[in-house]
C-alpha cells in the first residue's frame, strides 16, 4: 500500500527532527550553578528525548515551505518544545490532572517532587522566551519578525491559549459533558500551540499574510485531527 511507504518516511523524518531538537535543547538549556543542579536535571528529564516532536516539525516545515533552511528554524522549534514540556510537567501535578506517568515513565513530580517540578516548568517556559529573544543573533531573524513570533507564542501559551484551556479543563471536571466546552479545551489547551508552531515557523521565514493565513487554516485542521486520534487511542 502507498501509505506504508509514506508512513515509514514520516517516521524517519520525525526521528531526524527529534535527534536535531535534542541536540539543540542540550545547548539551549541554561547552565546552572551546582547549587541548582537538580533544576537542570528536572528540565532535561522532561524535555530531552521526549515525545514525537510534532510541534517542532510544524515549525521546521512551515519555515521550509516558506523558503527558510530547516536548520535555521531549529531555535524556534526548540523553544516551542520547551513550552510544550513545561505544560506537560504542570498538567501532571496533583493540583491539575494528577497523573503519575508521562510517556511511559514517571511524571516529573514523582521523580523530583512537586516543588522542583513546578520550578522546572517555570524555568522551561522562561528559557523558551529567552531563546526566542535571541533569534536576531542566532538565526538572523529580523527584529520585527522576532517580536511577532514572541507575541504569537505568548498568546498561545497564556490565558488566550493553553492556560485558558487548562482552566476550562479543570472546570469541566465538575460539570456535565458539554460539546462547546470540550471544543474550547481542545482548541486552546492543545490546538493553540500547534497553531503557534506553524505560524512561528512561517514568520521565521518572513511569510506573507496570505501564506500565513493558509498555514493557520492547515494548523487548525491538524489540531482537530490530532485530537481525534488522541481521543481514539484513549478509548
Total number of helices = 11
In the CATH hierarchy, what is the superfamily?
Farnesyl Diphosphate Synthase
Q: Any low-confidence stretches, pLDDT <50, length ≥5?
A: none
Number of strands: 2
Main sheet overview = 2 strands, antiparallel
**Oligomeric status of the shown chains?**
single chain
Helix content: over 70%
Describe this protein's structure.
With 235 residues, the chain is mostly helical. The chain has one domain: Orthogonal Bundle (Farnesyl Diphosphate Synthase). The protein is 74% helix and 2% strand. It has helices at residues 2-28, 37-47, 54-65, 74-91, 108-112, 114-133, 135-138, 143-157, 162-172, 179-204, 209-234, and strands spanning 101-102, 105-106. The chain has a two-stranded antiparallel sheet. Strand 1 (101-102) and strand 2 (105-106) form a beta hairpin. Helix 3 packs antiparallel against helix 4 (74-91) and helix 4 (74-91) packs antiparallel against helix 6. The longest helix is centred in the first third of the chain and has 27 residues, at 2-28. The radius of gyration is 18 Å and the shape is globular. The chain starts with a helix and ends with a helix. The mean pLDDT is 92.
Give a quick precis of the structure.
The chain has 235 residues and is mainly alpha-helical. The protein contains 11 helices and 2 strands. The chain has a two-stranded antiparallel sheet with strand order 1-2.
Amino acid at each position: 500500500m502507498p501509505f506504508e511507504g509514506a508512513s515509514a518516511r514520516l517516521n524517519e523524518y520525525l526521528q531526524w527532527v527529534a535527534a536535531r531538537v535534542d541536540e539543540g535543547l542540550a545547548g539551549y538549556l541554561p547552565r546552572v550553578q551546582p547549587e541548582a543542579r537538580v533544576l537542570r536535571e528536572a528540565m532535561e528529564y522532561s524535555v530531552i528525548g521526549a515525545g514525537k516532536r510534532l510541534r517542532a516539525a510544524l515549525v521546521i516545515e512551515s519555515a521550509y515551505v516558506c523558503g527558510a533552511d530547516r536548520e535555521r528554524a531549529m531555535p524556534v522549534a526548540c523553544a516551542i518544545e520547551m513550552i510544550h514540556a513545561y505544560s506537560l510537567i504542570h498538567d501532571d501535578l496533583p493540583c491539575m490532572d494528577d497523573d503519575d506517568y508521562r510517556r511511559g515513565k514517571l511524571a516529573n513530580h514523582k521523580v523530583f517532587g512537586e516543588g522542583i517540578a513546578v520550578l522546572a516548568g517555570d524555568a522551561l517556559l522562561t528559557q523558551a522566551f529567552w531563546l526566542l529573544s535571541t533569534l536576531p543573533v542566532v538565526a538572523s531573524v529580523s527584529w520585527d519578525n522576532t517580536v511577532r513570533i514572541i507575541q504569537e507564542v505568548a498568546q498561545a501559551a497564556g490565558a488566550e491559549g493553553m492556560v485558558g484551556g487548562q482552566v476550562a479543563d479543570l472546570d469541566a471536571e465538575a460539570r456535565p459533558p458539554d460539546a462547546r466546552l470540550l471544543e474550547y479545551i481542545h482548541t486552546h489547551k492543545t490546538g493553540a500551540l500547534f497553531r503557534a508552531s506553524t505560524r512561528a515557523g512561517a514568520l521565521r521565514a518572513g511569510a506573507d499574510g496570505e501564506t500565513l493565513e493558509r498555514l493557520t487554516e492547515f494548523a487548525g485542521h491538524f489540531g482537530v485531527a490530532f485530537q481525534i486520534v488522541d481521543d481514539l487511542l484513549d478509548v
